[in-house]
Design goal:
Layout (H helix, E strand, L loop, with lengths): L1 E6 L5 E6 L7 H7 L18 E6 L9 H7 L9 E3 L13 E4 L6
Amino acid sequence: MIQFTIEDRTGDRQTLDIPEGINLSLMEVLKASEYNILATCGGMALCATCHVQVLEGLDDLPSQTDAELDMLDTLPDAGSDSRLACQIRVDESLEGAVFRLVAEEEY
C-alpha cells in the first residue's frame, strides 16, 4: 500500500492508503475519494482546477512537465511547492507525502 495525506481547505487531514500499481493520477484518486475538486479538463494539464500544494515530499515527486509548468504559471497563488494533481501518478514516490487542496471547490 502507498500511504499519503490530504489536507482539505479547512485544514482537516486524512491519510489515504492506495494499492500499489493502481495506475491512477492523484487527481483521479482525489475524485474517487470524494474530495471536492473540479478537475475540469479531465487530467490534460489545461485548467489547473486540481491545483495542490505539496507540504511534504516534494523532492520525491517526478519533475514537472512543460505543460504543467506553463499552467501553474497562469495561477496567481502558485508557488514553488505547487503541482497539478492530474500530473502526479500514484506510485511509491508519494509514500509519506502531504498534499493540501488549493483549487476552487466544485459547486
